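pasting for ref
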Amino acid sequence: MESEFTVTYLEVITLFAVFFGPIVAVQVSQFLDRKRQKRAGKEWIFKTLMRTRAAALTPSHVEALNMIDVEFFGTKKSDKAVVAAWKLYLDNLADTTTPEDIRNSKRNDLFIELLYKMSSSLGYDFDKEHIKNTCYFPQGYVDVENEQHLIRKGVLGILKGDLVVPMHVTNIPAPKPSNQEVNEV
């Protein structure tokens, strides 16, 4: 009895698929997870900046700005455009030589451009006017921020000795008679 052992191409392919299939599936799954995580990081930055675009001093706004370099790092043209827009905006934030009113006007335009580049990179169909004009920030928030700023400046001025607290004394109590005056009467 002679046994004949022949292997067909279909058997080789099946054997290859049984052995390497799970390995390839895990690799593809990990690749897709990394891609989802990268997208989620970019989404978080964009949504945070959109949510806080009228309140640039909030910690989450600043944190999101500082994560742009990390999350949008890459070779994609749209990611590079976001990083370039961020660098221009950052340069404006660090500028102390330009008059404040000019700097603030340009800052707003650069920030809108940054958000526009992010929205394009992430596939949102927002135009610059939409980003600029669809932000709600109640007057009460503006008032509270202004009042807190004034209070902080005032307290700091007092602590530094640059400001004094005005005092007006009213209703000074009459001095109590001493024991000697009481005995003389």
